[in-house]
Amino acid sequence: MMSTVSTAWIACWLLLHALVGSALVAAEVGSAGACAGAEACVEEASEDDPLALLQAPVRGAAVAAGAAEDGWSLSLGAFAGAEEQMLDGVLRNGRNLSAARHLSDSFKFLWSIAVKDGTATTGTVTDQKNGCGKHYQKCHCDNPQNVFTMKGRGTSGTATGLDFTCEGVVFHFNNARSPDRNKVTCTIRTQMPVWGANHLHVSCDSTWIAVQVNGSPFPDVTEGGTWKDPPADWIHCKDCNFPQVVIDLAQSERQGPLPEYTAATGFWKLAGSGGTMQVSQSVTSSRTLSRSDAESVSNSVTMSVGFESGGTGTKMSLGLEYGHTWGDVITSTFSETDGTVKTRSCSSISCPGGYFQWYVRSTSDDDKDGPAVTTQSCNFICQEGAGEAYAPMCPLGWCNRNYWGDSGSTSSKSKNYQCPCCLPGFQYPEFECRYDSSGEPLAKGPYTKGNSSLIP
Fold first, then answer.
1. DSSP assignments along 245-309, one per residue
2. Which of 70, 104, 234, 440 is 20 to 30 A from 390 (CA-CA)?
3. Which range scores top for mean pLDDT: 143-147, 156-160, 392-396, 421-425?
4. pTM of the predicted model, to two decimals?
């Protein structure tokens, strides 16, 4: 026969169970329109008004346990714990209560991905299926110190899990052999449910470009996109710090050390004509370069110097002294553009004729790791016309810019015709200036000795 104490205890238990059940059912029916959803109601109740938790839509014992964790409904929490103990192993709604995890505000996720030689963007928080708090303010996609960081927390006082996505995360690599294959764009999702195991999903647009520095692929996922072999203690964790992953380009995509460049060729190129023009400076190459590579590239002007004359089509080798200023042009342009990273505007200049811009093409003896580099500088010459026949016939620093002796005049011919011929002493005499029998400059061209100019 059951003892009087046991009978009383069971009676009390049944009464309390009935009272709580009625209150929760009434709360679900009465407050359905008060909040956007159960998660938002519990978040508001637990953070703004603890007593309102009993009026929020709940999920059985999980919410009662969450309320008890907050320390303001100990009797209800104790009851929920007793009820779960008594029903442990019994299926409710087709799921085993012993497999449930009370994932509330104390449930956290943190993961970071670093690029060994490069940077990462923040991405965008999307698809917040569970957790993240009211207005999803507890989930973030960030990049402190250029390291991608995904961070989230559960919603206070409720067992809703944590499930959100960082979309459009771009990992840039500075050591790419080709500028067209220097980045990977990924979508990353953490999926941590109230019931069952945690999962991490990663999908990227170019799975062959990057690898983990430990030799594993990146992303290292199954055919379904789930991260392979996560740490055992992460599968059912609450405070979940997934180990940081460091990635780099695959060896086949990675450039080798930059060699010293051994030859430089300068030339003028038409940039525009007629009026005020705004042009830019840049460094272009099939290899990604930074400003620290300027020294290796500028070494070219100390080894071999050449000039291509657009006006005559002549290609000539010059003494090294002719390129003494070209190294400064390369170095200053690299500094302004950070190598191949960006383009910078030059000062606008007015020219009624043709506006020619100075370039230096540097080459190495190793085409694979030292492909050609073209430096587009902010050095210009204004010529009388825009045709190829008017292209300067002298390299940078060797134009006779005051052939007519009127450079100080605002209406001078020299202002709009800055390279009619070369300075005395140029190693190709046919490009030096020509004068009449009295030593005066000519009124009409050709202005060079030997009639090498194509200007009629």
1. EEEEE-GGGB--PPPPEEEEEEEEEEEEEEEEE--EEEEEESS---GGGHHHHHGGGGT-EEEEE
2. 440
3. 143-147
4. 0.57
